[in-house]
Specification:
With 188 residues, the protein is an alpha/beta fold. It contains two helices and eight strands, in the order H-E-E-E-E-E-E-E-E-H. The protein has one domain: Ribonuclease Inhibitor (Leucine-rich repeat, LRR (right-handed beta-alpha superhelix), Alpha-Beta Horseshoe), CATH 3.80.10. InterPro entries: Dev_Immune_Receptor (IPR050328), Leu-rich_rpt (IPR001611), Leu-rich_rpt_typical-subtyp (IPR003591), LRR_dom_sf (IPR032675).
Length: 188
């Protein structure tokens, strides 16, 4: 009985530390400049509330084990990418920044990605290749941007369970409505 309780305690500690079966995110680390590299041995990076305007996305795709990335409320106005890179990212929080555009193929080819929050930005258009081949995506938050159109491919993700779109100045043309209807058929 003592051995079983000890084993249960060890497993519980490992889960709380993010070493087994889950990832515990620490409190936010506030930075004034974007880091040139990130620790390879962490599962969660929480820089929420920091003050850097530019992000080099390659930092998060080069041999890191990060599955949760929180860059919300960081005053980010641009994301720089250099080619596609597969990562272990599962959750990406970029809400409440100053993004007006995203780079081509942003978050494309991310098979582990389940949740993306881009709400509360100024995004006017989603780029070509956005979330392409991200087959595990379940939640996408795009509310409170400046989007007028939505790519049809975004609506045809069978795994997508939550799609928040309110607070955008939609151009409710026949093309948008047809895309929404097609997406609804695929996701039934």
């Amino acid at each position: 009985m003592v051995c079983q309780c000890g084993a249960l305690l060890v497993v519980t500690l490992l889960v709380k530390m993010g070493l087994a079966g889950g990832c515990a995110c620490p409190a936010a680390t506030i930075l004034s400049q974007f880091p040139s590299e990130v620790p390879a041995d962490v599962c969660c990076l929480n820089y929420s509330g920091s003050a850097f305007s530019h992000v080099r996305w390659s930092v998060f795709t080069n041999e890191t084990n990060i599955d949760t990335l929180d860059l919300s409320f960081c005053n980010i106005s641009s994301v720089h990418m250099s080619g596609k890179g597969v990562s272990t990212l599962q959750k990406v929080y970029l809400s409440h920044n100053r993004l007006t555009a995203l780079p081509r193929d942003f978050l494309a080819g991310q098979p582990s990605l389940t949740e993306v929050d881009l709400s509360g930005n100024l995004i006017q258009e989603l780029p070509d290749g956005f979330l392409q081949d991200s087959y595990s995506l379940q939640k996408l938050y795009l509310q409170g941007n400046q989007l007028r159109f939505l790519p049809g491919s975004l609506l045809q993700k069978p795994s997508l369970q939550t799609l928040e779109l309110d607070g955008n100045p939609w151009d409710c043309s026949c093309l948008l409505l047809e895309g929404l209807e097609e997406g609804r058929k695929v996701n039934r």
